[in-house]
Specification:
Quinone Oxidoreductase, Chain A, domain 1, 17 strands, 372 residues, 3 domains, 20% strand
């Protein structure tokens, strides 16, 4: 999910804009000889509406993926990783090997994606990132050199890291007057560029809306060709960029790219998810929803009772545990994304069944001995 500028609207909308799901029915307009059928797994960049158990989309907007693709990893790609790819390749800047970039808010979903793509595709680009000190270890693990975004002077350390030359491109997700001034000062004199990819500085302090329209902010602060804005084409899947999406998918399949999904949450936790986005304190990489189980009950084989009383219902499908529309196998990685309460409840349930099993076996043994 992401917070995006919404053209034509004076308020900002929290858009759940990408998804991985399963085709349930097909409309009458879908070509009978097409390559889409019921049961296919698909990804989509739908702009609005994926915050739901079911969604109706034009068949042209769906990207079919393989049945054995990890839906959590592929689900991270349509927005974050394709936007990050565009920032590197299609934002009007030329990054040749040996270039240096500055990534603002480097620990977020886009910052993480930029770093992982640079590494996976071996672009030979030096990365410097700004973030809070609590996230330095995480950022270092991505191959990014660090600067403290809360330091009194953020420009001086950046210039020291580049021997006074500055970076070729600075990616700015705040777009405030101060952030743009600092970003531009950190680039190479007269030739360095700033690419704005978000307008977080325009959000009210309480996260309830925006101070001004995005159009007003851009008219005032963008200064082409030095300061420009980049956004992913909403219909990239119908253009040449779709081949680039599949190139990224191949990197995921062969293990060269492991998209960071820091949190998996249920739709019932939407309020908590919004709060995490507002604060930004614990967000590293991407957050995703696993759709509530009740609407997938038709496909169930078993039910797992969690500590908070909710149910995850799923079915085994090609070796994966599908939790409704989105799936994730119950591995150590997935358990780390569950809340502490849920983990305790899950372990308690497993312990209960073990105790029950041994009790039954003990009773059977007693009955057997008495029979003898």
């Amino acid at each position: 999910m992401a917070i995006l500028p919404t053209p034509g609207l004076s308020t900002r909308i929290y858009n759940w804009v990408d998804l991985v799901g399963e085709v349930v029915p097909l409309g009458t307009s879908v070509p009978q000889d097409g390559n889409l059928k019921i049961g296919d797994r698909v990804a989509a960049r739908c702009v609005l509406g994926s915050h739901a158990t079911y969604i109706v989309l034009p068949y042209e907007d769906l990207i079919r993926i393989a049945l054995d693709d990890d839906p959590i990893k592929i689900g991270a790609l349509p927005l974050n990783y394709m936007t990050a790819w565009g920032m590197l390749k299609h934002s009007g800047v030329k990054l040749s090997p040996g270039s240096t970039i500055l990534i603002g808010a480097a620990s977020g979903g886009l910052g993480t994606a930029v770093a992982q793509l640079v590494n996976a595709f071996k672009m030979d680009i030096r990365m410097i990132g700004t973030c809070s000190t609590s996230k330095f270890e995480y950022i270092s693990s991505l191959g990014i050199e660090l600067t403290d975004r809360k330091a009194p002077d953020v420009v001086a350390p950046l210039l020291r890291l580049t021997n006074g030359e500055g970076v070729n491109v600075a990616y700015d997700g705040v777009c405030s007057e101060q952030s743009l001034k600092s970003s531009l000062a950190a680039t190479r004199a007269d030739v360095g560029k700033v690419v704005v990819f978000e307008v977080m500085g325009n959000i009210d302090a309480d996260g309830s809306g925006v101070v001004r329209t995005t159009q007003e902010i851009f008219a005032e602060r963008l200064q082409p060709p030095r300061i420009t804005f980049y956004a992913l084409e909403t219909s990239f899947y119908n253009k040449a960029e779709i081949s680039e999406f599949h190139d990224i998918v191949k990197k995921v399949r062969n293990g060269e790219l492991d998209p960071v999904v820091s949190k998996l949450m249920r739709l019932s936790q939407a309020r908590e998810a919004h709060g995490l986005l507002k604060s930004g304190s614990s967000v590293r990489g991407k957050m995703m929803f696993v759709v509530d189980a009740e609407l997938a009950a038709h496909y169930c084989i078993w039910t797992i009772l969690c500590g908070n009383g909710d149910f995850f219902r799923g079915r085994k499908l090609h070796g994966k545990l599908w939790m409704n529309i989105v799936s994730h196998n119950l591995s150590e990685r997935s358990l780390s994304f569950l809340s502490l309460q849920t983990r305790i409840g899950l372990l308690s349930s497993i312990l209960f069944f073990f105790i029950l099993f041994f009790e039954v076996m003990s009773m059977c043994l007693i009955i057997y001995r008495r029979g003898i």
